[in-house]
# Entry
Amino acid sequence: MYNIEHIRNDFPILSRQVYGRPLVYLDNGATTQKPRCVVEAMVGEYYNVNANVHRGVHFLSQQATDLHEQGRETVRHFINARSTAEVLFTRGTTESINLLAFCFGEAFIGEGDEIVVSAMEHHSNIVPWQMVCERKGARLRVVPMTDGGELLLEDYGRLLNDRTKIVCCTHVSNVLGTVNPVKEIVRMAHDRGIPVLIDGAQSTPHFAVDMQDLDCDFFAFSGHKIYGPTGIGVLYGKEAWLEKLPPYQGGGEMIKKVTFEHTTYNELPYKFEAGTPDYVAVHGLAVALDYVSALGMENIYAHEQELTRYAALQMGEIEGMKIYGPHHDAVISFQVGNIHHLDMGTLLDRLGIAVRTGHHCAEPLMHRLGIEGTVRASFALYNTKEEVDALVDGIKRVMRMF
Ligand code: PMP
# Structure
């Protein structure tokens, strides 16, 4: 049962006030709030289990290791990867993409090669690839989009050629809410033997993702955007690819045998996990994934879709309102008349409404749209129609002030 009152009670922060008003938290695209069970699981681990994982023969270390590896299995199941060898823990989407860009770049990218990204990528799926291009003398190619915020697949097809080494594309735009046809994007790349990375930072929190169905070669997401802790994320990679990549960082955990003359590396996934992992955050992430799974990703999706449609309808009636993109997925980016996005965001904040303003770490997309920034409201499983009403009332109030 999707009981929104019960659900909201799981998130203590939602009942706090800001400026003496009830908090209306609509900045979920940036980060989500945490249910009690996640925080309590992490506190419980620190209080009762804490010990470094993998290296200890003692009881606590083994218990911590079990929790850590169960966490990996929870992630594997959640994304339907074939094996836990394909689930690497990182600090988040950004680190996942940097890891891949570095390792893939070292192994497979050379002078004159091409890397394809899309026009609506977050900086974290542009800059690491630009850095590879600079290091290796390769070139970044960009899949264009329509004014409405949809990728142009025919142009994408024309970009693919013998020099294309990898395609990197976001599943869902953090600005426009566009859900990209990633299965088709993967299929078109695979027809030419090119691997694909999907940035899943904005898809995993909103609908079920299935690695075997998507058939992408790599997939990245962040724990903190899916009700888990900060500082933990995942890079999924097909085993065959991960086997071919060199390690990222060197240190403990990632080695099999070390001498001053020569080092051999550990098996997957440990080859890519140098140093003490954030095992407490992994446990927290696993509890968060269990939490959303218990609610049902399909129920979360239905709830958020209804909210987004309701919000788009109400907001669409406001005079001077411009909504960017097709708002398919729990995100509405907008501008009203010539009210600056920063003014709108600051004044909404005074009414207790938290939204995000600016370029949303997607400056090239802003250039494409010919704007400096937008106001972005982004929804989560715990938001309500009353909160959408508060947003709409808030926007109208700000307009009256101008
Ligand atoms: N990609 C997308 C689409 C995002 O929305 C974000 C976060 N705004 C990121 C990547 C980066 O995620 P993180 O900051 O958690 O590494």
